[in-house]
Structures are given as C-alpha cells and as structure tokens.
Amino acid sequence: FYSGFYKEFFKRYKGYSELPESWRILKDELVEHISDLTQENSRILSIGCGTGYVESRLCDMDKSINIVAIEPGVDMTKWVDERVDVLHGLFPDVLEDKYSSSQFDFVYASSIDYVFDNDTYSKFLRSLTDYGIDDFLLTEIFVPKYGLLVWLKEMARNLLLLLGIRSGYQFWGYLRDIDEHIEFLRVSGFSHFETGAYDHGAYWIRAKR
User: Fold this and answer.
1) 172 pLDDT exceeds 60?
2) Tens digits of residue pLDDT in 39-59
3) Does residue 144 have a cis peptide bond before it, meaning omega lies within 30 degrees of 0?
4) 3-state secondary structure 130-151
5) Apex CA 98: angle with CA 97 and CA 102, to 5°?
6) Distances (CA, A) of 200 to 30, 80, 103, 140, 197
7) Smallest Cα–Cα separation from 75: which of 141, 139, 148, 2?
8) Are 136 and 186 in contact (CB under 8 A)?
9) Which residues neighbour 184 within 8 Å (Cβ) at sequence distance 6 or greater?
10) Distance CA 58, CA 32 (A)
11) Distances (CA, A) of 152 to 142, 157, 202
C-alpha cells in the first residue's frame, strides 16, 4: 500500500511548497519543538524521516547543525535538503561503519510507532539502547482517542481520494496510549520520561536512561 500511495503522492506534488499548508503547519510544530531542544552545531539523528520535510526545515532554521536521516524508502527522500545525510536502510544496521552513537547529540523518531506491532516495536526500542542512545525523543505520537481516530481516518480518506486511491486500507496501523509507550520504553532500558502534546493533538515523549 505505502509504495502505491507514495508513487501517487510524488506524481501529484513536486516539492514541499506544493503540499497542503495545513499539513506543513502541523509539521512545523515538530520543527519548532526539535529546534528548541537542540543547540548550534548539533549532530542530529532522525530515524524514519519520511519525505524529510522536518529535517530540511531544521537545516533552514539553523545552518550550523548536521543531520543524519534514516529512511527505508529510497523514493521517499527525493526532496530532502542536500545538507542532510540520508541513509537508506534500517536502524541500526545502516549506521554500521559510518556512525557511532557518541557522534550524535540528539536522536528522534517522528510518526513511526504506528507501523510496528508490539513485538517489532519492543525490538526497535531495545535496539536504541543497545546502540548506546541515552536520550531519545519519540514525537508525533497519535493515541487511540475516539475523536482523534475519527479525524485521522477522515484525513487519511480525504488524502487517498485526493490521490485517486481507494480507501480500503489500514493506514494508521497500531495506536497505543502514552502509558503503554512509556512501559515499552522502560522495558527497553529508559528510566526518565517527559511528555507533552502539540496543538494539533499528537503527543511526544522524551526518554532518558
């Protein structure tokens, strides 16, 4: 489904500026948040950067930072700012012989938790601590609230219709509440947690060891 979706997506849109303003406003909340948590000359690791909008905007805001972005989908990153070092593959294997955890000042993952079933999610979080990451931001988490689910499904349905794709898919995958996320993080080796919410309704968790 995702390969078909993004094939149509990139046919319809030719750059970030063509994406709906409402979508860009939501993503800019993440950009501002991450920017507030980082400093000049920071080296940032993004796990699952998608189209790379957030990473490109971060580079625009602070030209001194360095970003390494991991994305499995090769066709996803065609618009990413050239200052972002994009690695196509899976964490942590794609970093082997290129980067170590000590080279990153800040690590985050945005909008990726919903693609994992519980077993895969647990393994992913454990791989973070095994790699040596002590401070991790899990951002743009959507939780299973009735009103939000209705909104998400409607937004997904409208986007699929916009792209001419029939909406018979499980687009949003697995949703967990904040306590469930924290328990997964705790079992994976993190012990200190800070949480918050964005204006558009998504949540974030900053986890430290």
Assistant:
1) no
2) 999 999 999 999 999 999 999
3) no
4) HHCCCEEEEEEECCCCHHHHHH
5) 100
6) 10, 24, 32, 9, 8
7) 2
8) no
9) 118, 121, 122, 125, 176
10) 8
11) 9, 8, 11
